Automatic annotation (TrEMBL):
Protein name: Methyltransferase type 11 domain-containing protein
Family annotation (CDD domains): AdoMet_MTases
Cited SUPFAM superfamilies: S-adenosyl-L-methionine-dependent methyltransferases
Signal sequence coordinates: 1-19
Tagged with keyword Transmembrane helix: yes
Keyword annotations of the record: Membrane, Signal, Transmembrane, Transmembrane helix
Organism of origin: Vigna mungo
Coiled coil regions in record: none
Residue ranges occupied by any Methyltransferase type domain in the UniProt entry: 183-244
Pfam family, one: Methyltransf_11
Length: 312
């Protein structure tokens, strides 16, 4: 696979380069997501990976069209992430085009073998660095209901052995849904778990209006049917319930969707925002930009969140 990365790097990069890009693990057997250290800069592929994958149509053209449709107020390639002054504005009053701008090919992956194979062996590792995890935990402690609030239920989607909740945090019901049972079994915050491949079956195995909060940490990029999943999230959230999608700039690139691996952090904010918007049933999505404590030095941590409409 290292050769594949080399091949990618040797390709010309004719399209606009984003301020920040996904730094992705190159191995199908990767245990964790690779870190953006300077030593690994050669793993940073700035450009349209789908050219390599031969998947054709460009994300940029979708968003150029979107930008065009709204009078070219901005183009995301110019969006600056760290420092947080412009990306956090990206979703504010965004006028989305009528149609979901992505196509089937945007959700293809380099590795289309069943996810159950990729996630068969447990990975008892963390996928982002400690400062990024601490920032996420701190964020949760601000927005979560207090520990042990009667009647509160939380769903951690794409869960594993860790959910990054505040230490000792408890609720009556905390469900983890993921691919690896051994990981889920070991997660101390969960009161129950479900093993389900959302790319095979996006229907969440829960009643309507069940959860106060849904979290998804560094995994929204693996969803190949995101609109179906986000519709389901809306269905199972209680009215006013909060969905928090967090991500960094790393991924298992063979398993991440093409539109994600070929774009940068600002685009990822827009992509996740678009899922909320086009799924329906949510308030306009909002973004918390790089909440990590040392932008540029520790892993970035972005949050795109929304509440289920109280009338939905
Ligand atoms: C990078 S790990 C992140 C795990 C955990 N959220 C964390 O923060 O450490 C990706 C997670 O997404 C889950 N996942 C990947 N593909 C999935 C799918 N098709 N359906 C359900 N979960 C999936 C895996 O089980 C895995 O736990």
């Amino acid at each position: 696979m290292a050769n594949v990365v080399g091949l990618r790097l040797s390709l010309p990069l004719p399209l606009p380069v984003l301020g920040s890009v996904c730094v992705c693990s190159s191995s199908t057997f990767a245990t964790t997501l690779s870190r953006p250290s300077t030593k690994k800069l050669n793993c940073k592929v700035k450009g349209p990976r789908r050219m390599v994958l031969g998947l054709g149509a460009s994300f940029f053209s979708h968003f150029m069209t979107m930008a065009g449709a709204m009078g070219s107020k901005f183009f995301m390639a110019s969006a600056k992430i760290t420092g947080g002054s412009s990306v956090d504005e990206l979703l504010k009053n965004y006028e989305w085009p009528e149609q979901f701008p992505f196509k089937e090919e945007d959700f293809q992956r380099f590795d289309e073998t069943p996810d159950s194979l990729f996630y068969e062996a447990p990975r008892f590792v963390t996928h982002i660095d400690d400062p990024a995890i601490a920032a996420l935990t701190k964020y949760y402690s601000k927005v979560f209901p207090p520990s042990n609030t009667p009647g509160v239920s939380i769903l951690d989607m794409c869960s594993s052995w860790v959910s990054h909740f505040p230490p000792g945090y408890k609720q009556e019901r905390v469900v983890g849904l993921g691919m690896n049972e051994a990981e889920l079994k070991r997660n101390p915050v969960l009161t129950e778990y479900a093993v389900q491949d959302l790319n095979v079956n996006p229907k969440l195995p829960f009643e309507d209006n069940s959860f106060d909060i849904i979290t998804n940490v560094v995994s929204v990029d693996y969803l190949t049917k995101p609109l179906d999943v986000f519709k389901e999230m809306s269905r199972v959230l209680k009215p006013g319930g909060l969905a928090i999608m967090s991500f960094s700039n790393r991924c298992f690139w063979t398993k991440a969707i093409s539109i994600w691996t070929s774009t940068g952090d600002a685009d990822h904010v827009m992509i996740v925002g678009s899922y909320f918007h086009y799924a329906g049933g949510f308030e306009p999505p909002q973004v918390a930009v790089d909440i990590s404590p040392n932008p540029g030095r520790s892993d970035p941590m972005y949050i795109v969140y929304s509440r289920k409409l109280s009338t939905a």
